[in-house]
Amino acid sequence: MENVLSHAQLLAVAEEYGTPLYVYHEDKIVSQYQRLVKAFNNEKVRFFYACKALTNINILKVLKAQGCNIDCSSINEVKLALHVGFDPKNVLYTSNGIDFEEIETARSLGVIINIDSLSNLKKFGQKFGSSYPVGVRLRPNIMAGGNLKISTGHDKSKFGIPVDQLDQLLDIISQHQINITNLHIHTGSDIKDVDVFVKGIEVLFEIIPHFPNLKSIDLGGGFKVAYKEDDPAIDIEALAASVLETFASNELTKDLQIWFEPGKFLVSESGYFVTKVNVLKETSATTFAGVNSGFNHLIRPMFYDAYHRIANLSNPQGEEKEYTITGNICETDTFAWSRPLPEVREGDLLVFYNAGAYGFEMSSNYNSRFKPAEVLITNGSARLIRKRDVFEDLLRGQLVD
Ligand code: LLP
Questions:
Q1: Number of domains present in the structure of the chain
Q2: Cis omega (within 30 of 0) for bond into 20
Q3: Cβ(222) – ligand 1 distance below 6 Å
Q4: What is the rounded average pLDDT of the residues 293-305?
Q5: Is the CB of 295 under 6 A from ligand 1?
Q6: In the annotation, is 51 catalytic?
Q7: Is the pLDDT reported for residue 343 higher than 80?
Q8: What does the pLDDT read at residue 1?
Q9: How remote is the CA of residue 363 from the centroid of ligand 1, in Å?
Q10: Residue 256 domain-assigned?
Q11: Does 381 share its domain with 255?
Q12: Whose CA is nearest to atom 5 of ligand 1?
């Protein structure tokens, strides 16, 4: 695997900045982006970084400098993108279940908008008619993604306008002369199967003739990365070949751009989460290694049963034993059950891999614990990009008589 931070580098940054600590490796983000660009190698294709995976503005700047566009899932993400200097033309706002006011704000900021309900589309039509081009998010009724919680395109999903409501959609569009320029689908996260994208494209191909002003087809994100050794990842080169071939087979798409919104693919492997073992507890069931963190910092194992590779940075040559790695949150807060690791001692530093996407971003102050610091490694040197919380952060915004 290329662009991996060594144990020595991680120990050095943890020594300097303390733990728990999120560490991101700029070279890895850049190489993932370049891999996408090279695989598709086609000027019709545009990538929008799904910044919900990791919104630290320093990370946004790294991708902006590469020429990547940005996909946002709230108006505040849109504002962060504009704050770091993205051109509104390169900012996409794919909303879900939002107040119409946010759509109005997005319009006034001049960004690209995907609307995901008939109700908001109707309000948009009533207010703006054909004056502002807009995209619609469709629900293709395809089951895809690593687990049900991250599957978004199936027939019970809250996302998008169901394709079976095409008639109603077309009625609203024609009633208000809405200028639909983009058709969007996003079927889930952790998708390893290239055919899922082809299936989605085929659903869209059937309805393209109804949208004469179309300029792009937006296939969302969801590219799976490997979380463990031998874990299948999406084959990006095969995906590119299949998608481009499918588009080439349809004359109606010859002037259409193809958009993607990758999150995990760009930042998951760039991230490392370093924690310290506070307490070892031998029990008849297992040996617990309790770290100075919890699901308030990395929720994926508890929320999705996600697997994160763990290594003992402090004792890599130790004799292998099994440990159950737990957090300090006052709930069953478990990162991994019975995980073989080189002997773990109190004070050892453990690293969680693949922590770049939906790690810090989904963190909270539950149990009134501080959020961790974030560090970015660029050309071998480390820089603090977010301070660790301090006590005042817990009080910020609270009012007293
Ligand atoms: N586009 C849209 C409209 C999305 O909803 C998402 C993710 C993406 C793009 C990017 O998907 P990605 O390439 O990152 O798979 N917190 C979960 C993942 C939730 C994904 C939500 N939507 C996790 O940690 O697995």
A1: 2
A2: yes
A3: yes
A4: 98
A5: no
A6: no
A7: yes
A8: 57
A9: 16
A10: yes
A11: no
A12: 186
